Amino acid sequence: MLLVDDHAIVRRGLRSILELEADISVVAEAGGRGEALRALDRARPNVVLLDLKLTADSNVDGLELCSEILRRRPDAHVVVLSTFLDEDLLNQALRRGARAYVLKEVDVGELVRIIRAVCRGESGFDSRSAALVRAIAAGTTAGSGPPLTDREREVIELIARGLTNREIGREMFVSESTAKFHVRNVMRKLGVRRRAEVAYTAGERGLLRHEASG
């Protein structure tokens, strides 16, 4: 297995946990794209555990790397790790060839189960991602648009209050780039192109808990 995450402490933690399993061996680690591709060619892992966020500038640069990994090694099994439960990200990861989509909050036992599943040629999802997959398959995410997460609903409220991305980040205790990612997702899901349209559209759909003040 190849571990790809920009934080060395996360990689060490995953390695120490996963290598407790007799049938799992971590053959290489990487902190970014170039290092990951060199490790891929050198170690030739069967499974790549790939974080979507590999730089401070983007929350989804792992998607491009997923495509590149599978162009070089079509037989590799990519397990995507994500902080976000998002329909578009899940779909993109699967379209690019990932065999599994797993939230970072996943239980260790569940992660091990998913890794074993992809090694058998199956797909794998944690419980929350699996519920989203079932909803997509059943068509229950259609209609007024993709479902909004609780965090995205919070972002809508903050946008309606007139907060900037930086201010939203402070309110939510996340970085400005993560706040920007959430704002873009909200705009996409609401089908609007301008930030100023978010509050109006959300209000029309009954998504605001209260009228924006000021």
List the helices and strands and how they pair.
Layout (H helix, E strand, L loop, with lengths): L1 E3 L3 H11 L9 E3 L2 H11 L3 E5 L10 H11 L4 E6 L4 H9 L4 E4 L4 H12 L4 E2 L1 H12 L11 H11 L4 H8 L3 H15 L5 H9 L10
Parallel strand pairs: 1-2, 1-3, 3-4, 4-5, 5-6
Helix pairs in contact: 2-3, 7-9, 7-10, 8-9
Describe the main β-sheet briefly.
Answer: 6 strands, parallel
**CATH architecture verdict of the largest domain:** 3-Layer(aba) Sandwich
Q: Structural class per helix/strand content?
A: alpha/beta
CATH class of the largest domain: Alpha Beta
| Spatial order of strands in the largest sheet | 2-1-3-4-5-6
Termini gap: 53 Å
Report the total helices.
10
Low-confidence stretches: none
Give a verbal description of the structure.
By secondary structure, this protein is α/β, with parallel strands linked by helices. It has two domains: 2-138, Response regulator (Rossmann fold); 150-204, Winged helix-like DNA-binding domain superfamily/Winged helix DNA-binding domain (Arc Repressor Mutant, subunit A), CATH 1.10.10.10. Helix content is 51%, strand content 11%. The chain contains ten helices and six strands; from the N terminus they run E-H-E-H-E-H-E-H-E-H-E-H-H-H-H-H. The protein has helices at 8-18, 33-43, 62-72, 87-95, 108-119, 127-138, 150-160, 165-172, 176-190, 196-204, and strands at residues 2-4, 28-30, 47-51, 77-82, 100-103, 124-125. The chain has a six-stranded parallel β-sheet with strand order 2-1-3-4-5-6, sandwiched between helices. Helix 7 packs across helix 9 and helix 8 (165-172) packs across helix 9 (176-190). The radius of gyration is 19 Å and the shape is elongated. The mean pLDDT is 87.
